[in-house]
């Protein structure tokens, strides 16, 4: 089978998710009493605006908030919002605030995609409201020097003490350049600041309590909001969950395990699927062989272009985000194993176009990932290779770690165990095989939230259960519209990929990630 490599997901440089099962023990939850609302704000000046997708009617507005809430009279940031009004206004529940993650994803774009991505059940009952978090998209975006971004990308896989030192110097220079170009906002990109922005949006919308759907890194925003403002939550779904309690090593280990297990699911699916390009072959052995050849400099793509183990890791992560890409992943690996590079149609894109740069300014203020030396880093790699003998490690976790070494900003929102008390039930959902947010993270967050959490597992693979599983989507829709949750600990059956596509458009949940990670 010849594989069209023009359809390979772009390696992301720098820019980040059955009804029968759920029929058990559904129960209704009543809202708790209202708390004092936040200080009143001027109504938002909504104006008609166009969606890039050409579907639906939208309004856009901006909301000005302080960069630093300890200095309310100081610098400000204008938050860009978009809204899709409820299509059944007579039965409108209120506003559903949404965020697609990243960090760095555009909530406005997420809202613009609502008619294609969310079910009629949500579109009828809610105004879908998305916002670009501070420093992202149209909300006064962080900008950085393109050459420094490229220099950082080239150093994210250090292989010696000197290259680790060079990485730290480059990260420091890049962070300082971002600050010089953008101003004080760069030092206030943490998730706590964004959660407080969310509450300002809630107040400006006139909602005493907000409904929220966050996916991927958007779950971190929901978690922090629930900690800070528990009595201002009407309903909250956390889909494909970030666990903000984990240290640097545990982040590496859990993502490496998720990468290895998800690849195993792909390999087993291929063995049982006649239309898979690698059907009848030992997919694990093939990947191991390709990895060894790439690491030894023996693979090329498109003639003289070297194809490295870093390229293989990055592209494999991209393909494993969604089972919808598994057919193409098999074709890509088969094509990569083709002896004559001239038979391949074109080279996969390893470099993305430079773009405004919010990923590390957020991540490195939310997570303390500092390691003392290259020896520690090298020890991680050796341990990870034993944990994940086929895939070796998670390139997503690894570049999160290396990209924050020497980053010149205070970790203002460091890891901690969640302390949520007094919210209505929060629906937490995670797939069993997710390369970006492992199932262990969702289970861990549900335990930390405690009695307020209801945990639902999708037993398949993918990132973003709302689009991976019709069962999970129905559970989320039912909960957000009626406050009826599935039984805690419920499961949705796996959906194996077929040639047919989903009825709903799966949003690009990697859009906020560095450009080599974007689809």
Question: Care to describe what's here?
Answer:
The chain is an alpha/beta fold. The protein contains 18 helices and 14 strands. The strands form 3 sheets. A 10-stranded mixed β-sheet has the order 2-3-4-6-5-7-8-11-12-14, with helices on both faces. Helix 5 packs antiparallel against helix 6. The chain is globular and about 60 Å long. It starts with 18 loop residues before the first helix and ends in a 27-residue tail after the last strand. The N terminus and C terminus are likely disordered.
Oligomer: single chain
Q: How much of the sequence is in beta strands?
A: 5-15%
Described by the principal axes of the CA atoms, the overall outline is globular
The parts where pLDDT drops under 50 for at least 5 residues are 1-41, 343-354, 513-519
Radius of gyration: 22 Å
Mean pLDDT: 87
What is the helical fraction, as a range of percent? 25-40%
User: How many individual β-strands?
Assistant: 14
Q: Helix count, per DSSP? A: 18
Derived from helix and strand composition plus strand pairing, the structural class reads alpha/beta
Q: Give the CA-CA distance, first to last residue.
A: 23 Å
Order of strands, widest sheet: 2-3-4-6-5-7-8-11-12-14
| Largest sheet descriptor | 10 strands, mixed
